[in-house]
Amino acid sequence: MPVATSVTAHSLFTDYDINLFRAGKNFRMYDKLGSHVIEVDGERGCYFAVWAPSAKAVSVFGDFNDWDKQSHPLNARWDSSGIYEGFIPGVKSGTVYKYAVQTQNGEWLEKGDPYARLWETPPKTASIVWDTYYEWNDTDWMKDRYRHNGIDRPYSVYEVHLGSWKKNAKNESLSYRELATDLVDYVRKMNYTHVEFLPVMEHPYFPSWGYQITGYFAPSSRFGGPQDFMYLVDKLHEAGIGIILDWVPSHFPNDAHGLAQFDGTHLYDHADPRKGFHPDWKSAIFNYGRNEVRSFLISNALFWLDRYHIDGLRVDAVASMLYLDYSRKAGEWIPNQYGGNENLEAIDFLREFNEAVYREYPDTMTIAEESTAFSGVSRPTYVGGLGFGQKWMMGWMHDTLKYFKEDPINRSYHHGMLTFSLVYAFSENFMLPLSHDEVVHGKGPIIDRMPGDEWQRFANLRALYGYMMTHPGSKLNFMGGEYGQTTEWSIERGLDWSLTEYKPHSSLQQYVAKLNDIYRSTTALYEQAYDPQGFEWIDMGDHQHSVLSYLRRGKEEQDVVAVVHNLTPTVRADYRIGVPFAGSYEPVINSDDAEYGGTGNYEIKKLESQPSEWNGRPNHIELTLPPLSTVILRYVPEQKKSSTKSKKK
């Protein structure tokens, strides 16, 4: 590579760009800041631009100049924007570099590029000049993406940590391209609609699971380069699978090469630790009131939707952003201007983030991990909401896991744990999460919460998943839960796929795949997931028998399924439930069938309703409820029965 001898005064910025940036309204800053291989006056090279307003000087050093901090100083822009820039001839894609930032007290800091598209593989910490050009093959998906991502579409999400989903024979993580075969085939086989990746952005500390990010614009080089990750996205889209990324605008680590003290000051965070230091994660909190920081964060969100064709962003730790006193004691936080504990700057930022995403990419989805009772998280900003598309239903998760942990003999006393969620189920657009957080820090795997012998544990887990998949809201299940992983999740070991060679685990896996198939093909289970018209109790009060029954409804009047859960090992013969229509109700699934690991002793065939009142309805059906089971029945309208007979003729 030729060694450049000078830095040419060149800029990609217009005055308009700078004005938007300083106003916090430039959401495409990745097109300007960072490193960009371009041609200037017929000569190829690299344009560098970095925001460091309190720096005394900034230079670029790397493998192109023998890591000499003095040879290539950047030029400070004349407009007081705090941006240093310049064109260095001869620098190519693949060049390894850092910024040398001189503080006002003369100290030189070695910083990675906040906008770098690629970083060295940790523990190395330099940035790499890289182009994200890629020939996409997902035109059909992108054209019809609104059909997959709409609020009235099914969302059954498989949450994945890419580095530990599967390890090779050397206990190494699979590459993006290997995952593009193995993971894509598996997710398709399991009938999930979407995958959600724990943060793929570059992070120095692997055990952080990706939540301590230094390279916000770069997929982790642990598994390959940017085009390799694009290939994985491409293959998922070709298979009809959407991709959601975990996005972390709540905090960033204090690593010396990262955003912290970038120009010798608290450039991206608050100087006062009562606002700028996160006590839980010992990290820095973004200054949402600083316009240039807002431009950085919203540009980053749009970058993944733009350059990587990502279909949605799940925003991490929203609760920690909303409240100034989050995880703080009295005296450790500063009230807002009205004396309250709400972080008004963060609230305003989140609203602007959601408005920008849905304005630019209306066929995508934003999802909040928000664990408090903050009002209107998934309501539009024009009615005072935060503007998210969905919100994790943490209360449902806690109550459900607590209920299923109870011995069935005691469940009659805890019936309300399952019915309470329907009191508030339609106050937000909820996603039901059984996430990675539930299988770490000593909690153990989900199946370990299930009481009883081996058969009862698996039967309980099938019933839990049946309840989850038929409850209003979208769904999320962390990897391993679908086949009954028996150890707590570890990023060092990865999942234990050998378990699927054993019948109880393979049968559970088959059951989850079937549930996903039923969910995505049954409009009554998703069309009105966020509308009270889509749910109706049959009987919420049979606590003595620990039986729950309800209807799920689609948009068409007769598009109805009846769901019954028997949550004890006791068989309930001749169990009666009221139904809305006279006629036939055919079984969709019985979790006690032998193929799913059940007893196989209680086959449920098509049922004809009886014309007598029950549960306040004019008709009823009777069936035998298998032990620890979920049964789903679909109403068969007369016209469908007639058309079926015609086809047979």
Give the topology, please.
Elements: H1 15-22, E1 34-40, E2 43-51, E3 57-62, E4 75-76, E5 83-89, E6 96-102, E7 108-111, E8 118-119, E9 127-128, H2 139-143, H3 145-149, E10 156-160, H4 176-189, E11 194-197, E12 201-202, E13 215-219, H5 226-238, E14 242-247, H6 273-276, E15 277-278, E16 283-284, H7 291-307, E17 312-315, H8 318-322, H9 344-360, E18 365-368, E19 390-392, H10 394-405, H11 416-419, H12 421-424, E20 430-434, H13 454-470, E21 474-478, H14 503-521, E22 535-539, E23 547-553, E24 560-566, E25 572-579, E26 584-590, E27 607-608, E28 619-625, E29 629-636, H15 638-648
Parallel strand pairs: 10-11, 10-21, 11-14, 14-17, 17-18, 18-19, 19-20, 20-21
Antiparallel strand pairs: 1-2, 2-5, 3-6, 4-5, 6-7, 6-9, 8-9, 12-13, 15-16, 22-23, 23-24, 24-29, 25-28, 26-27, 26-29
Helix pairs in contact: 4-5, 7-9, 13-14
